[in-house]
Amino acid sequence: MDKKTVVETTINGEQIEFLCEPRQSLLEVLRDELGMTGSKEGCLTGDCGACTVIIDGRATCSCLMLGVEAQGHKIETIEGLANGAQLHPLQQKFLENASLQCGICTPGILMSAKALLDHNPTPSEAEIRYALAGNLCRCTGYDKIVRGVLDAAKAVASKAA
Amino acid sequence: MAATTEGTHQFRVIGTRPIRHDGIEKVTGAAKYGADYSFPGMLYGKVLRSPHAHAIIKSIKTDKARALPGVKAVVTSADLPELADQIAQGGELPINVHHLSCNILARGKVLYDGHAVAAVAATSPHIAEEALRLIEVEYEVLPPAMTVEDAMAPGAPILLADLRNKEDGPDKQTNVAAHIQFKRGDVKEGFKQADFVIERTFKTAMVHQGYIEPHNAVGIYNSDGHATIYCSTQGSFVVRSLSAAVLGIPEGKIRVVPAEIGGGFGGKTTIYLEPLSVLLSQKTGHPVKLTMNRAEVLRASGPTSGGTIRCKMGATKDGKIVAAEIWMAYEAGGFPGSPVPMGAMCIVAAYNIPNLHIDAYDVVVNRPKTAAYRAPGAANAAFASETIIDELAEKCGIDQCDIRILNGAHEGTPQTAGPPYKRIGMIETVEAIKNSPHYKSKLEGKNRGRGVATGFWFNVGFQSSAMVNIHSDGTASVVIGSVDIGGQRASMAMVAAEVLGLDAGDVRPLVADTDSVGYNDVTGGSRTTVATGLAVYEAAQDAVRQLKERAAKLWEKKPEEIEFNNGRLSAAGNGVKPMSIKEIAPRFARTGGPITGRAQVNVRNVGPGFASTCIDVEVDPETGKVQILRATIAQDAGKAVHPAYVEGQMQGGTAQGIGWALNEEYFYDAKGILRNAGLLDYRMPTCLDLPMIETCIVEVPAPGHPIGSRGVGEASIVPPPAAVANAIAHAVGVRMTELPMSPGRVLKAILHKQGAAQAAAAAD
Amino acid sequence: MHAINYEAPKTLKDAVALLAQYGDKARPLCGGTDLIIQLRAGVRRPEHVVDVKKIPELRQVSFDPKKGLRLGAAVAAIEIHENADLRRYFPGLSEAAHLIGSNQIQGRASVGGNLCNGSPAADTIPALIALGAQCRVAGPKGERLVAAENFCTAPGRTVLQPGEILVEFQIPAPAAHSADAYLRFIPRNEMDIAVVGVGASVTLDLDEDRCTEARIALAAVGPTPIFASKAGAALKGKKLDAATIERAAKLAVEQSSPIDDMRGTAEFRRHLVGVLTRRTLALAIARARMA
User: Fold this and answer.
1) Which of A17, B267, C120, C276 is most buried, judged by most C-beta within 10 A?
2) C262, B625: Cβ pair inside 8 Å?
3) Whether domain A89-160 has CATH 3.40.50.2300
């Protein structure tokens, strides 16, 4: 029944195989089996977004996906957001804008914001707020987070130009 | 918005906005929070919780759970020592360790839905969860007392057989744990002078801090009797002392390593899982990790009190408030200790009211034991007083800001408890709102309104220790024991850098464990920048004193002849070439060894904090839904060390206050079961529910503090519920007296008003 | 979570065989945004979880303005919202799909899952009922069609028998000058479960300025989603003036049977049924005039 299954995935560009029980969520696999603890557990019901990863280009709550369902999919996590020592513009602008306080929601918010910018590089404030509605932050009141994303979008655009 | 700054001296580092030192780890996912720790052989613990609000535990059978493969231990309160009543200082609120122990594992009785009954350690979290289903608990269910009215009524179900209060005497069982009173002047005479008197009864709901990171702890018990706890807490030293008390282990045998903390807001100033992790580790010989899920956090950690406030205030027709009479009762939860004393001291603390009478009651009810939440007790209190002040302003025909300026507390005004204020910035925050682009703008459109409110928080000082090490390359590290809940590393490094004449980036801040730095009280009460900041300031001064001694040695001078300015040592006389810290640092070994500055402080006098908030709303009169259109907060920071994070505190508190105002509440059914123990139905504001939050940092330096800092963590949450209520009143003409002002309640008030208007029209 | 067995059949035949074999010990898994929460909470404890997302029929979307829409039960909500045809011809359904949870949820959640979960508050069910959707069900005894309004039988329960699987929705081609709309009331601006939801579709005769067909359905005001047939019938053949719409709203309120819970009182919900029926109809009518 609870015997483990081999699952083949691509995580942050690397081909990764892991073993998991069917009842383990992708979040649990990332954190407990693969040691990637950047994705956080806040609610386990898909309401807080702290566990957000990107699967095949879409932001997804890793707490609401079984590890076995990841077979054959491409997963991006917070650990792969920076390019080596080079921070992603979102990360850099979050630091410059003081967009984080305690930091627990930050990985999930960065991944949601990345999924947004990947689809829509020039989002309005309203579009950013909509895209981040599934990511609760209790520290900031969201003001500096939204500014961080707006700034990052500008930085990406000026780099592309 | 431009800050209002009063004559402080110029700083070089303080007041700038460097990138926080722990930032990279937190944007890359590398930062380790409590639940991120793992150790070889680690087991996973889970807690069995009561499905009843109030019941006697008749028996607990654990053999089936123990027999499940993978289960390594099951514990109940029988595995913890039974403690006598004894008060420990647990952060912002005093804690009775007997009650604390009974809260961690119920002893004989469960007092709320979610009360911990037993704990299991197993080889996987899933097995531990399955084991919980196999523990058989026999309960004798008792009727619950869910509200202060229920619990104070004659014949109410008694929660704690031993609870007594002074008034009722030693023979009477009661749910009233304490009655606190404050009196000034003569309220009867005061109300005689009043042209307008408003009296209303307010109800506020129990709400949760809502930190995104659930509670967690990893306990490692060594066979030599020493234990280590890794956990996310606001106070590692409090975890140490409280866990030691609950476990019956000497404090010195416990080391607490504070992990990064994913929000606390007061809720992580006490303990839940920490002693269980040690106990289970002791039973199994393995490290044990426990984490709460969200339902457990809501059901069984410490939210803050709801309750009832009757508030009567009178003013002369020119707007002078002459008397206030207040009755308030707060839900303590299953054990005594609501923040009602603070609520009482805060409720009219922003005003100079000559005649005052406050009665406040701490009442046990069948809800989780409350814990501190950002300015504990103050926001619900201000909801009452600040909406009545708004009504008085309306009656008197005075501007919302002006009535607050007219009656505002200032230097010399007596505080609720008696002693007069030193220099404070209450009036300055209201003036900042009055002068803000927001307040000066015209609010147009149907069903829109603007509300203003002011809030007070004491701010606390207490004990802190710090060390400043000067490295051989001339950089420094600052070691603190106050955990960093959202920018303290940066601000502490900045304070040290200011004193040492270094750049903020040349000072590396470190949050140490309980064996590596002297005692620190919790990161709470808005105390860290003030008290730990003072410790860092003095530790850096101690390092400077030692630097001067070394320079004196090198230059063959007396230490008092050495000058230290902006990081450079100098002395008068020939042949003395000034040296930077970088230049003298390599010579430490030859001049007496390493330099470590140290300081320990116990700060008694701190500068109180005030915040004033202006909020615009639009109300949908058909559904009662309230949209926040615009929000501005002005807060007195004394001196903002890192203004970006001060603004962040102001914005975050405003957001929490708006959540409290509109939709957050504990919803219990008739049996006392929490029906919204999840983030779907415990509705905290999302990104789409809030506008940008405009800030104005007011700087009225705190007397006696070398930097002038006042705490900034808490006052911001106090005004929003009242400001939103006042805005609703101005939008649609209904006075809301119950929190949250959820759509159903607002609609009911609107329909009631329409019904009354129609009835009046029909009568004409 | 209790231990589970996971299987992901690649054909409808295999899925039906597996589900038939396991009977009530199995539960189909689609987006998992309800099921995984229920497994974790111990609300459902199936031994077998059968992932249906790899079955091609369940992932197809085909639309023809003449033949109508065939929508696979497992198509993710976000794919529905991103589909330009659906946004144009079935804006109510498209918006309902776009209201399910956050972006992170919509990449996984499906309309089929939303229906099979059997929640009375599900956002897409009133939209399906309003559109007259038929649900194609496959099972060991063959296939059958079930009208959307007959699919849910009680909270968390549906007409599906052990071994049966929901394959797709068949939605008739939109008539000329017809349109649908779905509105819900929630206390926040996102992330909540509907306190009340109202779906409506209307077909207009612009020459006569009359309504020729109307269907109205309600969420979160009864043990199952409610087809407010009387409210729709009250519009048929009528000129859509304020009084007629008000009458339909009143009938919708009468057909609702809400309860008090943490999301609202019965009284508040009845009031909202009236408000939302008016607003939803106004939106659908405005769209139909343009269509």
Assistant:
1) C276
2) no
3) no
